[in-house]
Specification:
Elements lengths: L6 E4 L9 E4 H4 L5 E6 L4 E6 L15 E2 L5 E2 L1 H36 L1
Antiparallel strand pairs: 1-2, 2-3, 3-4, 5-6
Length: 110
Amino acid sequence: MRKNQKYLVSSGDTDEYGLFVMEADEAKHEKEMYLAYIFDADRFTYIKHEDLRLFVSPENLNSCTDEFGNEYTGKSLEARIKEAIEAFNEELPGWKRYMEESKDWLKDDE
């Protein structure tokens, strides 16, 4: 999974399910909130600085559970991470465009 070094992944906290994806560069900057993609929910969210501890490189994630309680490990986890990263890359340009347009709409309302 070396080509995935530019991403960090998380299975959330102990009481959470799902697979979260973040660009590794995102975590290099000291901020209060970090952009991450929730694969199971197919949406972006912001992660608090203290929750960065939950994110690891893809090869260091041992397992994750989906919303139906299915646990993924080994090859099935690798496939799920690959699918999540592909979805992240597919959705990110649209999310960025939406955020830019939202800024313009908010400016127009002032």
